[in-house]
Amino acid sequence: MKKKSGVQRSKLEATFRYLLLTFVAVTALIPAYIIFAGSFKTQGEFLRSPFGLPLSPSFSGYRAAWTDNFPNWLANSFLIVTGAVIVTEVLAALAAWGFARFPFKGRETILGIMVSLMVVPPVVLLIPLFQLGVELTLISTLRLVILIYVGLMLPFSIYMLTNFFKSIPESILESASIDGASSFKTFKSIVLPLSGAPLATLAVVNLLWAWNELLLALVFLQNNEKKTLMVGITGFQSRYSLDIPTVMAGMSIATLPLVIAYLFGQRFFIAGLTAGSTKGE
Amino acid sequence: MKLTRGKSEAVGVVSRQRPARSSREALIWIAPAAFVILFIFGYSVITVLIQSFRYDGDWVGFENFSIVITDPIFLTALKHNGLLLLAVPVLITLAFIIAIALFETRRGMRFYRSAVFLPYVLPIPVVAVVFGQIYQLHGALNLFLKSIGLDFLAKDWLGDPAIALGTMSSVIIWKEVGFGVILMLAHIISLPNETYEAARIDGAGFWRTHFSITRPAILNTIVFYGVIEAITMVSWVFNYVYVMSNGLGGPGNATMVSELYIYRSAFQNKAPELAAAAAVFLFIATLVLMIAFFRIQRRSIAGTFNK
């Protein structure tokens, strides 16, 4: 008797759980669906039934979106993200090795300060860097944006890699130093090959951040041809406010690389995002 | 964790023999990154500080600060950042409930997890544009509400100053909750099985078990997530507001936040000194949160060594 009621209760709980999760999943997916379905609709169709399937798919939205400076923006986003992610990866790996391998006075404090730099609002950095950019005539150049992105991504990257490097067993490193390998050689031939997963994780997290960044790109890339995709789309919205399918098509193109990266690299996304938390090492 | 501890002790012995060499070598490895960080953060923060005390090249003391702090728009912006902080407990509660629902689910767990996490991956500008459409007066949400007979709930979600900020925060919650779910779920999965055995023997119910056992067990992750989200609400909401209000913080100043105030002062009103003063205020606010963050990190570092 008692057991039966327990079973009933757990059945009820399971039903409730699935209802809850289904509701959450639908809420989470609907906006992505609206973008994607909307990009194949006509304006009238979108306004009449935003939730419906595009019954007679039209590609005019994509055609309109693709003209304009869209290919330029896409290329800029690719260049900036690739450049910034690679430079960050290299600088962060070197610095993290320095922190993990060579104890020095104040190491923990410096590492702690670096961690807290992650929370400095970018808007605080905006004005001085912009004025400097004007003086050096670096506004609307991809170089400056890449440099700023690298600076903003470094603290988290160093923190994460330091944690990983510290966890490499001493015995492995010792055997190398007995062989007389220099510390650079140890780093290159032993540490880096062991670090594939954390480096990939870091690349994914940084890629996500840089691809989606708006504020700095908005301020530092004013020339229409030099804009990133995110800045471009933001302007799209007001320019094509009467042509929603075009806006949706533009956003589909901007989102697709990310969604694909997410679906294939989900493991790395999750590992990277939990790496910052206290228990996620 | 044991390996790490063994290693750092061994390194410690070496360093006592040759401390100077060790720190010199560390410097070589760290220097390139340190140079970039010092330039981006160090230079900017110092320049902003100096600029906040000047006007047109002259030293004006605290004048910029007193102008900014008596500006009703800036005060409104600060108040809105404060109100957005109210979303943090909502985020924590939702993320916790979803995380334990996922934890208890075997079939379909991977699908639900991918779905729940997707919003966190989408670009904020894209999210903001879509929700801008959904929340229109004749947009998707109101169409849906009318179709199920809830006409009285249909509102001008972004056009009504009384609810625009609430609408905005619902978008932020929608996007940020997945991050909390992933953090908490990762921690819950890593908990040892015995944690739950006593509760199972007692026949404690599902919610009760998780509220009285899981919640305290993952408390540091919950606090970590709370701090991260608090920082987000104070210093990372620019993207949402900028896109959803077309860069204006409207209707009226209903969605003005401090980041947008700084941006507009600097680039639309051409008053970089006032923007710098406002930025210093914002910086101090995040400094407080930063110290909280720092202490949590330190405690967790100490925690791993004491285990």
List the helices and strands and how they pair.
The complex is a heterodimer of chains A (281) and B (307).
Chain A lengths: L1 H37 L4 H6 L11 H7 L3 H32 L5 H11 L4 H14 L6 H25 L3 H9 L4 H12 L1 H17 L2 H6 L8 H11 L4 H21 L1 H10 L6
Helix pairs in contact in A: 1-13, 3-13, 4-7, 4-10, 5-7, 7-10, 8-9, 10-14, 12-13
Chain B lengths: L1 H16 L1 H33 L2 E2 L2 E2 L3 H7 L2 H13 L2 H18 L4 H13 L2 H11 L5 H8 L13 H30 L3 H9 L3 H12 L1 H17 L2 H7 L13 H10 L4 H35 L1
Helix pairs in contact in B: 1-2, 3-15, 4-14, 5-9, 5-12, 6-9, 7-13, 9-12, 12-15, 14-15
Overview of the molecule:
The complex is a heterodimer of chains A (281) and B (307). Chain A has 281 residues and is mainly alpha-helical. Chain A has 2 domains: 2-60; 69-239, MetI-like fold (Orthogonal Bundle), CATH 1.10.3720.10. In chain A, 78% of the residues lie in helices and 0% in strands. Chain A starts with a helix and ends in a 6-residue tail after the last helix. Chain B starts with a helix and ends with a helix. Chain B has helices at residues 2-17, 19-51, 63-69, 72-84, 87-104, 109-121, 124-134, 140-147, 161-190, 194-202, 206-217, 219-235, 238-244, 258-267, 272-306, and strands spanning 54-55, 58-59. The radius of gyration of chain B is 24 Å and the shape is globular. Chain B is mostly helical and 307 residues long. Chains A and B meet through helix 1, helix 4, helix 5, helix 6 and helix 7 of A and helix 1, helix 2, helix 5, helix 6 and helix 7 of B.
